[in-house]
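FORM 7B - TANDEM STRUCTURE REPORT

SECTION 1: FIRST PROTEIN
SEQUENCE AND TOKENS:
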Amino acid sequence: IDRNVIDVLVEARLLTAGADGIEMAHEALIEAWPRLRSWIDDNRDGIRMHRHLTSAASAWAELGRDEGELYRGARLSATLSWMGDSAPDLSDLERDFVDGAVAMSETELRQHVRANRRLRILVAASVVGIIVAAAGTVLAVSQAKKAQRGRAAAEASQLVATVRGQPNLSASAKLQLAAAADRRASTPVTQGLLFDAIAQDPGFKAGNVLHVTLTGETPISANGGILLGIDENVLGVVIDANTLEPRRTRAPRPTVVVDTGSHLLGVVGSSLETVDLETGAIVGRSPGVSASPAQIGLSPDGTTLAVGNDGDGGGTQAGISLFDVASGKQMITMSSADNGSIHDVTFSPDGRHVLAIVGDRHALIWDTTTGKNVFEASGGAAPVTRFAMSPSGGHIALGRDDGRVEMWTMNDLGLHPMDIQPSLHHGGISWIDFDLQGERMVSTSRDGTAVVWDTVTGKLATPPRAFTGRQLAYSFFRPGSSTSLVSIDSSGQTWEWDLQKSTGLVTTVAGANLGATVSSSPEPGVLVSTAVGAMMVYDPSGPASREVPFESATSPKSAIAGSADGTRFVVVYDDGRVDLRDALSGATVFEFETRVTSPAFNERFGSVGTTLIALDRGGTRVAYQRADQRIEVVDDNGTSLPPISLSYARRNLQSIDLSDDGSELVVSTQAGEALWYDLKGIGAASIAPQGTGFDAQFISKGRVAVVGKGGAQIIDLRARQTTDRYNFGTDFTRLAVDGTGRLLATIDEAGAVQLWNADLVSRIGEAVQIRNVSSSVPIRFSADGHYLLISGPQEATWIDVWTADWRGVACSLVTERLSSADLALYLGSSEKVGPCP
């Protein structure tokens, strides 16, 4: 305690020893008390701690200095801190107590450290063990999965080999087994089988050749079951529309035939006798009139004969007379306000109406029970060439000589014209036919195109079928079917197609797309043009299409090319003009001054189909080879770069391509040399020597893909080095590289298109032979890698190459499920659920 206070207290005690010192001690205590009180207030905790230490040390001593009584933990720490701050005057016992507690704490600490060290070693060993075990587990799982994938790939390959080894399997069985193999392991092998199964079953194939010539204005019967023609001996031949086989040969030949279900009846002779073609017996009496074959119709039930009457200027009015076949008596006469010649007389499939064309622009329908005119269409820009009604009577359609198709719905509320999309025909309509339900209609034109319509929406039901180079006569639904159709060309070749299988991978349309472009904006589209006529944009994913307004439709075109973004296209005319046009409006953006008029140019464009014209991605820059063999590069504002001259050995070009931004150009020669030009003026270089650069095109990241003898290479232009090589093992002259890195495509000398897996450089399926395609036509993938477009001088074809969709496409074509026995035989399963849900 404060030494002054202690001295005072000691002195006070001594003084109180005598009576005389009491007063002095009292005064000294009064003087020292404030300092004593202040010290007690300041050291209250220390006093308490000291008191506890004294008590604990005394107890420790009484128990024989037992370690259990020593301070530990927080109390020992607090005591040591107090001793360091206050330096108290401790007794020897108290100091021994504190020293003993410190020594025991240090011993325990050393023991804890050793224990913790051992624990850390054990934990580390455990962690290492866990990591090793986990790594082993991951490796084992990975190896198990790898082994499982290997087994699945082996099983899939074995299934593929089994299917390919059995050529007599049905189309549906091949499709399902191909889907099952690809589901087990999707590899180039299984994808190839899928592709082949789909491509080989497109629902479109050449059928029998009819060795007859279809005759008359209405060679297909009113109920659609009979075809009528003459053979080489000029005998009348009746052909079954289902089997396409002759049912009856007859002389003299009939002019109209119907199948009543129990009799095959026809009209023959100058006096229009109705004859049972099976027995030759005349049915009923002759009506005693005569008419041309185009003016005669026989009702589907064989009971009523319709005969057309031409009008004249002397008061005779054009119309239709109906006669009872059994009695020969006239039943009713139905007149027309138009006094022109009447032709194409036919009954509706249900027999309730008679249809006819009067003059060349007047189409009429009469009700056979009342004789009243129930439909009349007159005028129009072009003559009416065909007129038809659906079996239910709910739809009416006519076709014109300019290829246009018009349609109406007819119900109790009257007639309603339908707003249908452009017909896609570029020749006169030769035939129109409805399916049994009246839900679909097929129109045929003489330019070789058949179009199937949805009669509810007025839009295309499937992509159009193109019969390039053939003059189509008729396309019709097989009796009772809404999906099976037959087309017949002028030579008698029949083509059979199934609308259920119209979702195949390969789509071909008439017309040229020499730019090989599938645009992505402003809408997905393939630009196609006929040599003379409209410009069409097809949606590659379906039958939708639109016509681009084109005021120069009468000018023959030598070539077209579209920009990658679908906003513009270039047209080259036979007279050498070159136009840059807007893809939506068809309006001219710019007409180039330089013309390309040389036999060599027309030969390349017209005969081979190689387009030597290119656009940048936005269609703002165009490059093409001029008549003087130099390369012209022109912007849409008319700015022209200095023409690029080529040496004599390099003038015969195979292809031209501009980079996306139009700053670079690559060309390839027919000798197989690829050249690169930096259009900013930096320079030019040969990037592939002769024989290795038959086709050069820009791909992503400023690189160029070049194909030549035996293989292809990807060249980094700036680094002047090859980054990838592909060894195809054979020679190709055209190459396409999928921007997603999945696929390659090549065309061989015969024009067959081959798909390749880009990683493994392995073939995917068999090569696809595209009609009217040679080794010189351009091919390109769409930007998203979904389609491969093959250009041609007469047809444009695109292939759906999105392999992830192929199983669904294959299953959509299946018409007959695998049996339980086949499931067990091919898939090792007795389950009733097949590979296609």
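SECTION 2: SECOND PROTEIN
SEQUENCE AND TOKENS:
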Amino acid sequence: MRWRLFSFAVALASFSTIGLELELTRIFSVTMYYHFAYMVISIAMLGLSVSGVSIYLFPRLFPERRAPVIAAVFMLLFAGTCLWALKAALESPISLHNWQANLGKLTSLYATAGLTLLSSGFAISLAIATARERIGQVYAFDLVGAALGCVFVIPALSTFGGPGAIVLNAAVAACSALLFALSAGDTAPRSARFGVAAVAGSLAVVLLFAATGEEKQKRFGAARNPDKFLGGRSVEFEKWNSFSQITVAQGMADYKWIFIDADAATRIWSAGAAKNNWAQTRRFGEIRTAALVYAVRHDRPALIIGPGGGTDVISALMNGVPKVVGVEVNPIIVNDIMKGKYGEYSGHLYRDPRVHVVVDEGRSFIRRSGEAYGSIQATLVDTWASSSSGAFTLSENNIYTAEAFEEFLGHLAPGGIVCVTRWYDAGRPKEFLRLLALGREALERRGVAPADVYKHFFLATDRERRGTLLLNRDPFTAADVQALADRAATDRLQILYAPSKPAGSLAAPDAGRNTVEEDAFLAGFIRAPSASDFLAKLNYDATATTDDKPFFFYNLFKAEFFSLLGRFRSLEINNLGVAILLLLLVISSALTMLFVVLPLLVFERKSLASDRRAKLRVVGYFLALGGGFILVEMGFMQTFVLFLGHPIYALAVILASLLGASGTGSAISAWGTRRFGLAGYVRRAVALLAVVLVLYALLLTPLFHLLLGLPLPVRIAIAALLVAVPGLLMGALLPSGVRVANSFGPGTVSWGWGLNGAASVVGSIAAMALSMNFGFRMALLVGIAVYVAGTALLPAEKPATSS
């Protein structure tokens, strides 16, 4: 056995496995929605669990002397099924309407991705089982490979696109198969190892060539979803990066559409539209509604979060704003589209000397900015897309939290206004009410008395489905109200709420009706003596979202969460993603029982007959480790999304740091056991872990709030360091359990391995549900409790003399 080649093969196997997980989340974000990231993680954990249990239960099928060649075959299978999984992902978009079709598509996606990740799971599990005295070296390469795979995904997606990155990933898997085959040495027949190596090498070359041209040739198809806004439009431009797919398609004669993940859209206006001071842009009601703020605040710099194709920038310039600062999170929109291919088409809008557009995340930029703005504007940012924060109903967006609104108000000049435009449903304004709740919470945190908050609000709608909130840092003056009312009349807008009744004629010029048609429900909330008392009477949750629980679109009460499974046909779109998440929880649980727990019951039940009490405690310890680890991991992923700005960064940084630190922790566990004894070492590690996680649960949110203004590379370094500390301690616990389980026999090890994986499979989705209903902090606290419970369960090693 050539152990160095074998170790590098393991590293490439882990590299390609974690790469596929992250790349599939990008594809699913376009063809489905971003919360399917949790499905991929769940599938990966299931693959490792099933493969590990199978190797323990059927050792004759995996002879150690042939392990390298068998692992090579599994990685070849992984490379081939990567392409199958890619094809299935592109051809199985989730519909918002046809549930029967969705169930079939989900099954297909789970099966293809599951078989793919099961293949690499077998290769990695077999390598670890074979390592024996070399386990330290092999396990270290496994974790380092996975960590590098997390990081490599970011440039791979930007360079090769979503589908191309998966093809490249398959090429890496083929390279892993090549190294596995060559590492066999004399343990396998020459014809077998060189035959497999030749196939693997040839496949790697072909796949590498295919990956370089996939973005243009689209051999596997394009990432689309007919139900999304892009629909069947002809695409003029397409480019991917680590957190989005950006496309451009024709709109009308004077504008084109930019689409983010095939859904969220923003217009690019043609240079011809500027000849008449962009007058024709105002034919759309949502543009006039969003521009209402400039009727009263146009003499100081305006900050626009998410300017996209520049519609809000144009509105600001039309109204004489002297300086427009745009903070756009997506570099493709700014550099490749507005300053690149479509720069001339747009009249070089983003090169106008009055316009300064930066690529950054909104809150991070505002935190660093020392300027006082006349207005801060966000128009339909992150609607139905997964650009900067997630998407759809499980969207985590750090600009729609009470802390964010408080920050915005703090960076306004005297009399400055926060202007936020979102969807408004007059019959059931759930989303818009939550927006008002954010504004009111931020005002009260800044010391505005509940009896005075009504002076700070002004609401208007385009009479279609968009509404705009104007939130003044200081009370609106009578002159402000009058100016806004006059502009509303001119622009045919409806005033939903004003702090005082404007004077004069307010008849809309071409509508013959008064612009003041107050929404009594929303006005009632603004004027209510207590926001919490008002919201408590509703049959949905519209309380202000926070950095700890930032799910702006999620409006179910905790008790309603599981009831969604029984009412798929009557779901509102905003709750559809939650229902899919529950479906995934059911599917994952069923598959775990079928392929992990049931085989153990059938083939290894007798192994628990003797020393039953002690062995059940060992199994319980492994169950707790799996559940605790995934709760902390998923809690970190979601918490750090708010700090790092993008889910892909959170996934990459958290996974890479946890894997690397856990590997180091596993390596030092032998030293700790010698120093303190096995039980003493575990107790110390868990006690220190509990202290660290409790501190994190209490301090991470305010710490992130303090550090949010730092540049992204610095935030990534801080995040990696913060995650590495608990990762060291968590990684130290599994080897201790293996030592105890080994003392009770291999059957106990197989039970421990299987149930540890089972807890991870179900826990990956359960952690998401826990965070949605109780917050990220609670997920960490529950993770601590599970770890502590596991420590109490772990028995002492069985004395060798009694075995």
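SECTION 3: OBSERVATIONS ON SECOND PROTEIN
The CA atoms of residues 244 and 517 lie 40 Å apart.
The radius of gyration is 28 Å.

SECTION 4: SIGNATURE
Preparer initials: ____
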